[in-house]
Target: ABC transporter ATP-binding protein
Amino acid sequence: MLEVNELTKRYDEVRALDGFTLDVAAGEIVGLVGHNGAGKTTFVEMVSGLLQPDSGTVLVGGRPPADTRGEIGISPQHIALYRPLSVREHLNLYGGIAGLRGATLRDAIDELAVALQLTSFIDRRAGLLSGGQQRRTQAATALIHRPSLLLLDEPTAGADPETRQALLDVVKQRAGEGTAVVYTTHYLAELMDLDATIAVAAKGRVIARGTSAQLLEGLPGEVRVTAADGEVHVSSQDPTGTLLEILGSVRRPVESVELRHPTLDDLYHSLAADHVH
Ligand SMILES: Nc1ncnc2c1ncn2[C@@H]1O[C@H](COP(=O)(O)OP(=O)(O)OP(=O)(O)O)[C@@H](O)[C@H]1O
Model:
C-alpha cells in the first residue's frame, strides 16, 4: 500500500532524511520509533505530500501522494484544529473534503463519536476542549473518510489512558478492515497492544524492521537469583534455561527469583543508542 524508497532531505547541514526506505502492506500497522530528530515527522510529511524530498520516491497504492490525497488520513504531531469550530463541524469539514455527503457522512460521524468517545462534547468548540479531547478530535479528522493509509504521528501524546485505549482500539479495527497504518510513538507498549510490526528510525533512515519477535530474537534478558549466601545476576539470551541452570547449582535456600525477557525498550536502546545525533 505504501512504498517509500530512499528518501533524502537536507536542511543546510542537517540530513533530516538520509535514504529512508519503508514499505507498509494493506492491513499492516507499522510502529515507527526512534529518537527525537530521527526523521519520523519529516517522513510523515513527505508521505502526506506536504513536503518534497530532495530525492527518492513515495508511492501510495502505486501512485504519488499528490494524486492520492483522499486515500490518506493524517493526524499530525502538533494539534491542528480550528478553535472556533465544533468537533462535529470539524468532522463535517474533513468528511466533506473527502467527498462524504448526507447520511453517509452523518453515519460516519456517529460511528466515530462513539468509538472515540466524542459524544459528550461533539457540539463544543475545539478551542474549549481539553488536550485529550482535542487529541481524539484530531484523530477523528484523520479517520472520518476511512482512508486506506493512516499516518498517525504520536497520536496519543499527552493522552490519558482511556483516550489512548479508545484510539488504539479504533486503529486495530481499521487495520483489521485492511487500512495500512504508520503509527509513530515513543510509547513502545502501545505497539505491543497494536500487534504492530516495528521500524526503528535513526539519523534519517530505518535501521531495523520486522515483527517484535524477530527484532527481539538474540537480545539478552536478565536473571537474578537471591539465595541465603548471596545473589547471582546475569544477562542471558536464554533467561529460562539460565535460571534452571542456576537453580540446579544453588546449594542454599533460594529467597527470590527474577526473570526478565527482552522488551521493545531493550531493542530500542540497543539499536538506537549508537545512532543519536
Ligand atoms: N523545517 C526544518 N528546518 C530545519 N531543520 C529541520 C526542519 N524540519 C526538521 N528539521 C530537522 O530534521 C531532523 C529530523 O526532524 P524530525 O522532526 O523529522 O524528527 P522526528 O524523528 O520526528 O523527531 P521527534 O521524535 O522529536 O518528533 C531534525 O534534526 C530536525 O531538527
